[in-house]
Design a protein that fits this description.
- It contains 26 helices and 17 strands.
- By secondary structure, it is of the alpha/beta class.
- It has four domains: 194 residues, Rossmann fold (3-Layer(aba) Sandwich), CATH 3.40.50; 194 residues, Rossmann fold; 106 residues, Arc Repressor Mutant, subunit A (Orthogonal Bundle), CATH 1.10.10.10; 71 residues, DNA polymerase, domain 1 (Orthogonal Bundle), CATH 1.10.150.
- It has a seven-stranded parallel sheet, with helices on both faces. A six-stranded parallel sheet has the order 8-13-12-9-11-10.
- Helix 17 crosses helix 18.
- The longest helix is centred in the C-terminal third of the chain and has 20 residues.
- The structure holds adenosine-5'-diphosphate (ADP), magnesium ion and zinc ion.
- The site of zinc ion (ZN) has 8 residues, from helix 15 and helix 16.
Length: 591
């Protein structure tokens, strides 16, 4: 067999012409047998980074991946590309397991996916010792660290497994979100040897970001789903109860929805997940239990019904939109009451006060995200430590939406002086009520109606006043204490502002609606994809991604050469599906 170059592998199997940012460097590092750690955003293309080396090497690559239920998906994808692979997990019968092990020992597979829990089995480790293992790839490597989200104790077994293997295979690790703390933990706990570490830019141009405030969330979702009826998407809600309620609400209105959370039986979860993966249900309503390892590439939108607990989780969850490189919309529906829920969760679940302070701080950052005037993309990227030189991304609600700039200098002066008179001892809600002149019991009991700032902002609702206070927090004129009580304090910037009386502007948004027209041919190709998927019992996006169908409907190739120029069509894919798709295209040319 002739050894293909990594570019040839990319073209022949995946049908892609170019590597994305970071992929080439990571792949070259792995095939030169250097331990390698790749940090790339969700949808950035991490899988290819260990799969191409797997094909390049003579032996087998073991992929440690966190979710048993999703391995099948990954393995189906690989087999559909003509790359032989298998998974080993508890869903297999003994007979199936023996067959796979037998075939593995014959060198039949390039990749074998396993769950970390497998590493606790001696039998399994003995089997690995007789296989020619070239590479161990650890996906979702943040699970190694207790400081990351999704911590999994079995990930800690990996380093002892590696010690057992002789010769030592090259180790590669991948994650989308790693703070310095988590990064160091991964390198240390996996005992990576002088690893090459690649951090690729976190920007995802194809995703648009939007924060929606002060609107009824349910009616917003109904409007949105109506104008995006053909699209597949995820709606994240904070609790199981929220998921259930929203599910029932949307189901009654006949939307194509399904649901997923930790309170459902395994079987129902699996069924619902499949409904979504196979495009039999367009919209998944879920808690954050859903999504890790989901590689459905044609997710067009991710809506957060409640604020997530930090920017890391938000970017990872929102990043599940648009993996195929086509447009994806990430919308966060903001309601200030959710902040209290999250504070309560931190307070009840984290005993260690240093850790709790970190979490409050992170919550504050996502809260600020919802109130900033700045480009949302820039805000996120700077949060992850990137140096951003531009100010406008033209693809987030702050950069594109129609808005008015409102001079809130006077309001800001009143608010700051009220915080001062209330002795910097209360939260946003109470301050807003005092300014509005509310006759609430607590205010009267504390004699706050006697303050000179009582009732000095009359022409705003309490919600609007809170909005301005939150804006001043996000702009750091005010700060909240890092605990459950979130007491508003003045900062030096506020003192400066009062002295120098600069002007403060805030954006007031005008709502706009998105509409997407899709061509008839695109929908026909989608329909064909669905039929084939049903026949082959694999999810539609494994056959071709939306991006591939879009390109097909735009370029209308009707011969093999032209077909192979389309992104996502390699030789194996062409052999399997080329003729069927060309037929639909030819018909559309005639009509
Ligand atoms: P993640 O980094 O989240 O694990 P994946 O490996 O699942 O991302 O890749 C996301 C999508 O990007 C997949 O549909 C994959 O086929 C596609 N992709 C990966 N590399 C490239 C590339 N070089 N060119 C075009 N598409 C790519
Ligand atoms: Mg992945
Ligand atoms: Zn922007």
């Amino acid at each position: 067999m002739i050894l293909l170059s990594i570019n040839e592998i990319l073209k022949k199997y995946y049908g892609y012409d170019d590597f994305r940012e970071g992929q080439r460097e990571i792949i070259e590092s792995i095939i030169s047998h250097r331990d390698t750690f790749g940090i790339m955003p969700t949808g950035g293309g991490k899988s290819i980074c260990y799969q191409i080396p797997a094909m390049y090497f003579g032996g087998v690559t073991i992929v440690i991946s966190p979710l048993i239920s999703l391995m099948k998906d990954q393995v189906d994808t690989l087999n559909s590309l003509g790359i032989k692979s298998a998974y080993i997990n508890s869903s297999l019968s003994n007979e199936e397991l023996n067959t796979i092990i037998h075939r593995a020992s014959m060198g039949d597979y390039k990749l074998i996916y396993v769950a970390p829990e497998r590493l606790e089995s001696h039998l399994f480790r003995n089997i690995l010792m007789i296989l020619p293992v070239d590479q161990i790839a650890i996906d979702e490597a943040h699970c190694v660290s207790q400081w990351g989200h999704d911590f999994r104790a079995s990930y800690r077994m990996i380093s002892s497994l590696i010690e057992d293997l002789n010769p030592r295979p090259v180790i590669s690790a991948f994650t989308a979100t790693a703070t310095e703390l988590v990064k160091d933990d991964i390198v240390r706990l996996l005992e990576l040897q002088e690893p090459n570490i690649y951090v690729s830019g976190f920007n995802r141009d194809n995703l648009s970001f939007k924060v929606v405030k002060s609107r009824d969330r349910k009616s917003y979702i109904v409007d949105y789903l109506k104008s995006n009826i053909e699209s597949s998407g995820i709606i994240y809600a904070a609790t199981r109860k929220d998921v259930e309620r929203l599910y029932i609400f949307l189901k009654k209105l006949d939307f194509s929805v399904t649901k997923y959370h930790g309170g459902l039986e395994d079987e129902e979860r699996k069924e619902n997940q499949d409904l979504f993966l196979y495009d039999d249900a367009k919209v998944m309503i879920a808690t954050n239990a859903f999504g890790m390892g989901i590689d459905k590439s044609n997710v067009r939108f991710v809506i957060h019904y409640n604020i997530p607990r930090n920017i890391e989780s938000y970017y990872q969850e929102a990043g599940r939109a648009g993996r195929d490189g086509e447009e994806g919309e990430c919308i966060l529906l903001y309601d200030s009451r959710d902040i209290n829920t999250q504070q309560y969760l931190i307070n009840t679940s984290i005993a260690n006060s240093d850790r709790a302070a970190i979490e409050y701080d992170k919550l504050q950052s996502i809260d600020n995200y919802c109130h900033t005037n700045k480009c949302l993309r820039k805000y996120i990227l700077e949060y992850f430590g990137e140096d951003i030189t531009w100010d406008n991304c033209h693809n987030c609600s702050n950069c594109t939406q129609d808005y008015e700039l409102k001079d809130i200098t006077v309001e800001s002066q009143k608010i700051i002086s009220c915080v001062y008179r209330m002795k910097e001892s209360y939260g946003v809600g109470l301050i807003a009520e005092v300014l509005r002149g509310s006759k609430n019991q607590k205010i009267l009991a504390l004699a706050m109606d006697k303050l000179s700032t009582y009732g000095i902002i009359k022409n705003y609702t309490i919600g609007e006043i809170k909005e301005i206070i939150n804006y001043l927090i996000s702009e750091k004129y005010l700060a909240l204490t890092k605990d459950m009580f979130s007491i508003v304090k003045l900062t030096n910037k506020a003192v400066q502002f009062i002295k120098e009386s600069e002007t403060i502007y805030m954006r007031i948004e005008a709502t706009s609606k998105n509409t997407k027209g899709e061509s008839g041919l695109f929908n026909e190709l989608k329909a064909l994809r669905k039929v084939i998927a049903e026949n082959e019992k694999i999810p539609p996006y494994i056959i071709f991604s939306d991006a591939t169908l879009k390109e097909l409907s735009a370029k209308k190739p009707i011969n093999k050469e032209d077909m192979l120029l389309i992104k996502g069509i390699g030789e194996v894919k062409f052999e399997r599906y080329g003729e069927d798709f060309m037929e639909v295209i030819k018909k559309s040319n005639v009509s």
